[in-house]
């Protein structure tokens, strides 16, 4: 009888924790590769304003995992999350404008738009955005062509352990 009570208590607490934290349930579904279930859990959270859910749901739409591939929906959710200060969302937006198909057609200068979003994410400390911004400065895409600025952003990313930024910085500093 005691064993039944213990099992019932455990099952009840597990069920309540799943109800209490639907984001954790969605993240677990993502980890388990159950993208359709994750999307179903993320949609109401994202629509209710949860920026973490918005970032992840945007990625699912961008890749077409668990939902139909839809770059416009991805950008929609990422912009909502970016508006709440999510550096990950800002980074994804930069990538969508630089590498995407639909997003790039919605602005006059997609490279500049990408640089703007990367700059916001990089300024918030996002290492991958710092690296990408450095690449844009190195290539003069959407920003001025400046090895000095490229090195500055690579240095910031490298300080956070970004290996590719370290390599790029060493190339710049060696004068090649």
CATH superfamily of the largest domain: Tetratricopeptide repeat domain
Biggest beta-sheet profile: none
Helix content: over 70%
Q: Could you say which overall geometry the principal axes of the C-alpha atoms support?
A: elongated
Count of DSSP-assigned helices: 10
The arrangement of helices and strands along the chain is HHHHHHHHHH
How far apart are the termini? 76 Å
Q: Residue ranges: pLDDT <50 for 5 or more in a row?
A: 3-20
Total strands = 0
CATH topology heading of the largest domain: Serine Threonine Protein Phosphatase 5, Tetratricopeptide repeat
Characterization of the model:
The protein is an all-alpha fold and 176 residues long. It folds into two domains: 84 residues, no CATH class; 89 residues, Serine Threonine Protein Phosphatase 5, Tetratricopeptide repeat (Alpha Horseshoe). It is 75% helix and 0% strand. The chain contains ten helices and no strands. α4 packs antiparallel against α5, α6 runs antiparallel to α7 and α9 runs antiparallel to α10. It starts with a helix and ends with a helix. The N terminus is likely disordered.
């Amino acid at each position: 009888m005691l064993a039944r009570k213990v099992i019932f208590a455990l099952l009840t607490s597990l069920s309540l924790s799943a109800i209490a934290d639907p984001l954790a349930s969605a993240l677990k579904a993502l980890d388990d590769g159950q993208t359709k279930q994750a999307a179903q859990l993320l949609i109401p959270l994202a629509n209710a304003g949860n920026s973490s859910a918005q970032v992840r749901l945007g990625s699912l739409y961008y890749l077409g995992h668990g939902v139909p591939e839809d770059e416009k929906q991805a950008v929609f959710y990422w912009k909502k999350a970016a508006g709440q200060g999510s550096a990950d969302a800002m980074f994804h937006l930069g990538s969508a404008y630089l590498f995407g198909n639909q997003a790039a057609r919605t602005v006059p200068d997609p490279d500049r738009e990408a640089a703007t979003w990367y700059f916001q994410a990089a300024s918030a400390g996002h290492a991958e955005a710092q690296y990408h911004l450095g690449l844009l400065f190195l290539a003069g895409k959407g920003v001025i062509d400046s090895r000095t600025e490229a090195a500055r952003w690579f240095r910031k990313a490298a300080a956070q352990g970004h290996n590719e930024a370290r390599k790029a910085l060493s190339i710049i500093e060696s004068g090649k």
